[in-house]
Amino acid sequence: MGELLGLRCLTCGRDYDAWSVDYFCPHCGPVAGALTVEYEYRVLARRLGPASFADTRRNSLWRYDSLLPVSGEYAVPLRAGGTPIYDCPTLAKELGLGRLWVKDESQHPTASCKDRGTAVAVAAARMLEREAVCCASTGNAATSLAGFAAAAGFPCFIFVPKNAPRAKIAQLLAFGATVFAVDGTYDQASSLALRAAEKFGWYNRSDGLNPMVVEGNKTAALEVWEELHGEVPDFALVAVGDGSVIGGICKGFLELGKVGLSGKVPKVYGVQAQGAAAVAHAFARFQDGRPILPAEERAETLADSIRVGKPMDALRAVRAVAETGGGYVTVSDEEIVAGAQELARRVGVFAEPSGAAPFAGLLRLLREGTVPEGARVVLFITGSGLKDPEGALRGLPEPTVIPPQLEAVDEVLGER
Ligand SMILES: [Zn+2]
Fold it and tell me: N or C: which end of the chain has fewer CB within 10 A?
């Protein structure tokens, strides 16, 4: 367990003792009062070295428990973290990049990156002796919580928009969660979960609300650093919905610097859909010196995991990205679909539309010259294509139906 100092409000800077509040600064309220977990970085800098994590054989995020707020002894047996990173030299060369890595976060027990944040939040719930957990989600955080709650033996209450992809609903029901399919937007589901959690005393894992989630998310950056043998890339790209995943990834890279393990921070870029770009717009306002927190915006994209009009963690997502020297880029749904198909064909990674958005974002940043020739880039692929087969099938030809005869195979091959 880490040298935990406490919690700090991102807006007013007030400090709170660790575990004295669950979610947000009571003074600033939800969203504005997002909290960040602080550690004794100077103590950790003396204690940690490049080989500090090598002596643990755990292939999970708990290998970094010296930088986590909860001890691994509270972890449930389901693995979180330890996902593969793929080197893509041919594609890198074609794109004019020095290196290109794909960090396949879909290789988690519930098939999305959300298992990292969930693992730490559920461990916290066990440590705090809470009796039930809940979460609002566009789908992936919910399925993740349902899976980890099943492993922990917690009753689990889920709020998702009723139009969440069927595969995600199937996961939720299979894991035994109580599912409220809200006839409304994700943002409405989110505020309903907040009120229900308060009324029934459930521990709320929702993105942008629970600071423990960010601590789990940051371990994706620590893994990249370790997998690249103590180096970090020049650029890191990830899709952004609420902002907790990118907030965590930035925090991971920044903390490596704070504890003296890395002298460099990659420029982190958030990728959003053009039709659901509230965080990107907030970042632009921040650059202009205007307030970050947005009013609710329209959110329309086929990438359901990032269909968020009122991002719960915008403050963190904007500030953290700025701290890395990165930025935001938006891409059209057509670019996302094409990106998902190219990623699958060229790398062999089957991503859901939002999961592939970083690849589409990279192509755009290359065209704009923001990512220069020779750059070393990592893409975080956040969710599996199996989560949304309908999304994956968009723009793909149907397979040819043939009679069970060899001549028919000949014929089809001849037509190609
Ligand atoms: Zn505050």
Answer: C
